[in-house]
Amino acid sequence: MQSEIRHQFLFLTPDTSIDGASAIDLIEQVRLALDDGCRDIILDLHNAPYIAAAGLKAILDIATMMKNSDGHLLLASLHGQSQEIMEASGLGRILLQFDTAAEAESYAHGLRPHYPTTSADDEDEDEDEDEEDPIFDDE
């Protein structure tokens, strides 16, 4: 499973279908992220052609964990049997779903527009302040 934190969002990308073993790993990754202060999860399922019952339970458990932590679970790139299973289970009606991880990330930025920037971002902003803004040159 691939995991990456960007802008306080945890991106999780299972390498294959979500079954019993990968469901346990998925929940553990989310718990660690919550402990680190992450409140929004983007679960990119483009590599997951199938979601077993244990995977559905894990996704529901994660959605509950996120709600209890004032966070969000966003599903991305559902396709094929994974999408059919999600719809048949009823979870498709209650969870946020997006065609791509990029769309989910864009939506997530709208949920949390004021995340603190990193120190590297602060340095970039300081450099930008020293430059003149060409829009206001004529004034």
UniProtKB/TrEMBL annotation:
<feature type="compositionally biased region" description="Acidic residues">
    <location>
        <begin position="120"/>
        <end position="139"/>
    </location>
</feature>
<feature type="domain" description="STAS">
    <location>
        <begin position="1"/>
        <end position="108"/>
    </location>
</feature>
<dbReference type="GO" id="GO:0043856">
    <property type="term" value="F:anti-sigma factor antagonist activity"/>
</dbReference>
<feature type="region of interest" description="Disordered">
    <location>
        <begin position="107"/>
        <end position="139"/>
    </location>
</feature>
<dbReference type="InterPro" id="IPR002645">
    <property type="entry name" value="STAS_dom"/>
</dbReference>
<dbReference type="Pfam" id="PF01740">
    <property type="entry name" value="STAS"/>
</dbReference>
<protein>
    <submittedName>
        <fullName>STAS domain-containing protein</fullName>
    </submittedName>
</protein>
<dbReference type="InterPro" id="IPR036513">
    <property type="entry name" value="STAS_dom_sf"/>
</dbReference>
